[in-house]
């Protein structure tokens, strides 16, 4: 039985730990005693620790076969670097803003396999892309993805299931996509469009910076884009908040105290964006790959599981991560250095394994092919 430590015990980190416990010896670590209550309730040993401290983190992970990174984005890169320096294989979902390839040589020097961005999107979409890119000539890649509450409640019609500043980052970081072989940069929230989805209705799609590694690893694909999905109308209030400076990271002085507006915004919004106990969410994603022969599409519509009290975003993100963790633990994926998920998809049998693993847990992707 392999020993795994999961760094971060939030909604997704806890789901990861609980799932991996079925087959492995798992420990959950977090700075928050409150967050550790859920994995502890499932019989998982817990460690309360300051995971931002490199020395403490290096000591914490030393006896484990694999590290899972499920920390907020602002902690993710430094934690990954520390784990690599400790010589530990890592599967990470922290979606930090830094370029993970900056740690590629370090990982190779320490003989470490580090899979990053291993969630739903980026993550599962990349695995699908990587698989087909190896076998077919891909002309276009389009990803539409969103996580939303099942019940629309005024004024936000949204719930956040991970770090609030990470959510806000999606709305302010310039969005990059590839069009006609050229890298295009637009502001986030741009180019809105309304799209109908069976079982959900009409959603609004807009540009966010979701391609990440694909911009560099798929240079031969001339058209690639990812858009975020929200309920119609969401984009307007986000634009207002952004234009008003509420998402700014630049300090302002208020009554003699310097604060970052984004910190105040996150503090005010997160209690309102937080899912209430038992409140349902759903994850929707559509991956479209254009080839010379036609279009290959994968559709996902996953909902909160009341039987296990597991939110959909934790299921779709967490179980993709745990599937790949098993590939790494079993030696079926052992590429040294930094690996975005598209590298995993290139391995024969990896996509089939991950899809099967997810399906056993009720996360089902529907594949459709259309000839030109």
What this model shows, in words?
The chain contains 13 helices and 18 strands. Helix 3 packs across helix 4 (73-85) and helix 11 (312-329) crosses helix 13 (350-360). A seven-stranded parallel beta sheet has the order 3-2-1-4-5-6-17, with helices on both faces. The chain has two domains: 3-120 and 313-369, Rossmann fold (3-Layer(aba) Sandwich), CATH 3.40.50; 124-303, Dihydrodipicolinate Reductase, domain 2, CATH 3.30.360.10. The model has no long low-confidence stretch (mean pLDDT 95). With 372 residues, the chain is an alpha/beta fold.
- The coarse overall form would be globular
Q: What share of residues are in beta strands?
A: 25-35%
Helical stretch tally: 13
**Which CATH top level class of the largest domain fits?**
Alpha Beta
The radius of gyration over CA amounts to 20 Å
Number of domains: 2
Number of strands: 18
Q: Residue-averaged pLDDT, rounded?
A: 95
Could you give me the name of the CATH homologous superfamily of the largest domain? Answer: Dihydrodipicolinate Reductase, domain 2
- Most strands sheet: 7 strands, parallel
Low-pLDDT parts are none
Trace the largest sheet across and list its strands.
3-2-1-4-5-6-17
What gap, in angstroms, lies between the N and C termini? 49 Å
The structural class is alpha/beta
The helical percent reads 25-40%
Write the CATH fold name of the largest domain: Dihydrodipicolinate Reductase, domain 2
Question: What is the CATH architecture assignment of the largest domain?
Answer: 2-Layer Sandwich
């Amino acid at each position: 039985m392999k020993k795994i430590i999961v760094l971060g015990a939030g909604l997704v980190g806890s789901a990861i730990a609980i799932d991996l416990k079925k087959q492995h010896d798992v420990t959950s670590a977090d700075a928050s005693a409150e967050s550790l209550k859920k994995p502890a309730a499932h019989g998982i040993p817990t460690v309360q620790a300051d995971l931002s401290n490199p020395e403490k983190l290096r000591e914490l992970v030393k006896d484990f076969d694999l590290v899972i990174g499920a920390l907020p984005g602002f902690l993710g890169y430094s934690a990954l670097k520390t784990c690599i320096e400790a010589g530990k294989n890592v599967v990470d979902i922290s979606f930090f803003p830094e370029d993970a390839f900056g740690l590629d040589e370090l990982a190779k020097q320490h003989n470490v396999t580090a899979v990053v961005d291993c969630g739903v999107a980026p993550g599962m979409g990349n695995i699908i892309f990587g698989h087909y890119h190896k076998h077919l000539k891909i002309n276009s890649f389009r990803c539409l993805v969103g996580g939303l509450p099942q019940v629309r409640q005024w004024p936000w019609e949204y719930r956040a299931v991970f770090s609030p500043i990470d959510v806000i980052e999606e709305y302010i970081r310039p969005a990059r996509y590839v069009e006609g072989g050229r890298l295009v940069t637009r502001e986030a929230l741009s180019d809105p469009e309304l799209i109908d989805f069976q079982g959900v209705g009409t959603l609004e799609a807009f540009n966010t910076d979701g391609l990440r590694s694909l911009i560099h690893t798929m240079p031969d694909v001339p058209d690639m884009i990812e858009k975020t999905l929200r309920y119609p109308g969401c984009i307007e209030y986000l634009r207002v908040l952004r234009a008003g400076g509420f998402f700014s990271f630049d300090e302002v002085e208020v009554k003699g105290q310097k604060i970052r507006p984004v910190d105040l915004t996150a503090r005010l919004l997160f209690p309102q964006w937080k899912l209430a106990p038992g409140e349902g969410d759903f994850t929707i994603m559509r991956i479209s790959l254009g080839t010379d022969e036609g279009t290959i599409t994968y559709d996902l519509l996953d909902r909160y599981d009341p039987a296990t009290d597991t939110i959909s975003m934790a299921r779709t993100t967490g179980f993709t991560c745990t599937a790949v963790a098993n590939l790494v633990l079993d030696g079926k994926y052992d590429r040294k250095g930094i690996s975005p998920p598209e590298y995993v998809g290139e391995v024969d049998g990896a996509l089939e394994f991950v899809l099967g693993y997810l399906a056993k847990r009720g996360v089902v992707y529907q594949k459709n092919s259309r000839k030109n």
